Amino acid sequence: MCLPGDTGSGPNSRNASTERGKEREPQSDTSDSETTDVRKINQQPSHREGRHDPNRYRLHFEKESREEVERRKKRAREKILEPAAEADLEIDINDIYPPEKGLDFPRRPSWHYEMTREQLLRKEEKLFGEFLETLHSKNPPGSLSHFEHNLETWRQLWRVLEMSDVVLLIVDIRHPVLQFPAALYHYVTNELHKQVILVLNKVDLCPAALVLAWKHYLSSLFPHLHCVCFTSHPGQPYSTAYSLGCLFSSVCISSVDLSSWEQKIQRDAANDCQEGELLEEGESVLVEHYSDVAMEMVNSSQELYKDGVLTLGCIGFPNVGKSSVLNSLVGKKVVSVSRTPGHTKYFQTYYLTPTVKLCDCPGLVFPSRVDKQLQILAGIYPIAQLQEPYSSVGYLYERMPFHAILRLKHPNGEGEDGEAKWTAWDICEAWAERRGYKTAKAARNDVYRAANSLLRLAVDGRICLCLRPPGYTPQRG
């Protein structure tokens, strides 16, 4: 039996309290935590020449207190893990985005061409500050998800929504309601009067019955929503060629000539979309880049299908597989794929055909009421930034016991009844022993690295936890 591979590593946090943005050395599990309220990650080396700031689109997250981290560590050592009820896997979108809690997203303020660039930026900054103040006033500390606090990233969303004719909202089928902000859907359909297509990605990781259940659940709640199943994994029922055909049928527009796109889809299907042979020799992809001024002064009243071109705006949380979907749509690896949330920093457009172009928005997290453990398992919060990953391992184990799959041996042996009683710490220690993870100085089992490794296996789908829509368990029975 082949065990899942490991890509775990120790923490690699950044010092948010230093104005110069200098890197910190990797922390050990017992090192002091930061004390600032907002944590800035993905620090890039600065360039002294020119005006470009490589850290303009850094991810900003709320910072946890050291006391909370230590409390959860202690609990991970002491709490005996018990199997959760199947109903605990069911999740309602209204629990994640309760309307009464003001879980909206910041909207771009009105503007006119007589405004200067500085005036527009100040107005946007004021609006964003008021949005954060209102949001935190309606939700107690610690109840909100670690949503994006960087205004620059939200500005990217505004530009993409303004430019797009049809919005592709990409979610992970294992937990789609975590990544489906209802406020965004209502804004696009009711205020912008544009179409939203929900791309249920990674359907190869879920049972077919569960895929259909999620599709039915979301379609019943949002009647104007078009759902398309997708996977870039070859040989699956919803593989690339089939999914592209479904997507094409969902966005057929009479005012735009989409025959070239249809021909491309048929050509890709005929070639089975083999990796490395996606484009014919000599075929290329035109990529548009925008200056800062152009991005800031995009006309929000832009006419639909301008110049006979259909613009598809691609939006999604980190780690939903958005880049993989874009690569499949374009037919060439033009978007690099990474498991690091926030890998894509600024929006770019790619001409799929002369009449169809894709506009890629950076992955960003909307404010919600998602538990911290679910945020981590869904890839919303960067695993590399965790100071206390053990409780998330315990959360996963209670909903999907995996000790037999990974052939873990309890550090303390079996209990009196012949069955071992596991804590989250035991699970991590057993995996460290299984994989040979040792600390550098004392050569003890490196439980931190083991915990990170297990969480990455979950995010990658090699330990696959799938949430369910309300009522799914009785219907399945």
Keywords:
Rossmann fold, 34% helix, 477 residues, alpha/beta, 7-stranded mixed sheet, 15 helices, 10% strand, two-stranded antiparallel sheet
Plain-language structure description:
The protein is α/β, with parallel strands linked by helices and 477 residues long. Residues 4-38, 47-52, 273-285, 289-301 and 336-344 have low confidence and may be disordered. It starts with 37 loop residues before the first strand and ends with a helix. The protein is built from 15 helices and nine strands. The chain is globular and about 70 Å long. The chain has a domain at 148-360: P-loop containing nucleotide triphosphate hydrolases (Rossmann fold). Helix 5 (182-191) links the parallel strand 3 and strand 4 (195-201). Helix content is 34%, strand content 10%. The strands form two sheets. A seven-stranded mixed β-sheet has the order 5-4-3-7-9-8-6, sandwiched between helices.
CATH class of the domain at 148-360: Alpha Beta
Structural class estimated from helices and strands: alpha/beta
- Please state the average pLDDT score: 78
Report the radius of gyration as a whole number of Å: 23 Å
Q: Count of helices?
A: 15
